[in-house]
Amino acid sequence: MMPRCQAPITDGTLLDYWAGDLAVGDETDRIEEHLFACGDCSARLHRLTAFGPGLATLVRQGRISGIVSRAMLNRMQHDGIHVRMYSLAPGETVPCAVFPGDDLVVAALRADFSGVDAVTLSVTWPADSPSGKIDDVPVSGPDAEVLWATPAAVVRQMPSMRLQLTLASAGATCAELGRYVLDHSASTLPA
Length: 191
Known about the structure:
Blueprint: H1 11-19, H2 26-37, H3 39-49, H4 52-60, E1 66-68, H5 70-78, E2 83-88, E3 93-96, E4 104-110, E5 118-125, E6 129-138, E7 145-151, H6 152-156, E8 161-169, E9 176-184
Parallel strand pairs: 2-4, 3-9
Antiparallel strand pairs: 1-7, 4-7, 5-6, 5-8, 8-9
């Protein structure tokens, strides 16, 4: 049995490393040194890279949704996934739609995450009807973003409506960091 790593590399960092999204230098050297010495993190990297060949298939089948990392999004686009992306700042309302050929819809939610390690994303349908909540989404740095992905096939089935997204700091404080609105127009084009 392999000993557990006492200072594991985060999954996000491993994905960034695997996708080649890290600048060559001290950080990649540090990661590679750790991977050569740590069987636990090396095994985790191997498991993460096994997703690669099947990831595009899962996205096209509409089976990938939730929070994704920038590295995972880059990898999906590299593998031919057609992404419709909407970038929102706190307080913004953005018109959105999905088009034939889109595989995935991603909302990039920006906020000031200074002093925040994790957030909760709440999704609310019209008439303040809660749709979903994702807790403990890790964030780092004041200029971070949260990428929320939804299969395009699901969005194509939605009627025209306003979808509200709210980010709040995770934990006891639950301070609101941003409220965003996607003003969705139902597709009249064939899927």
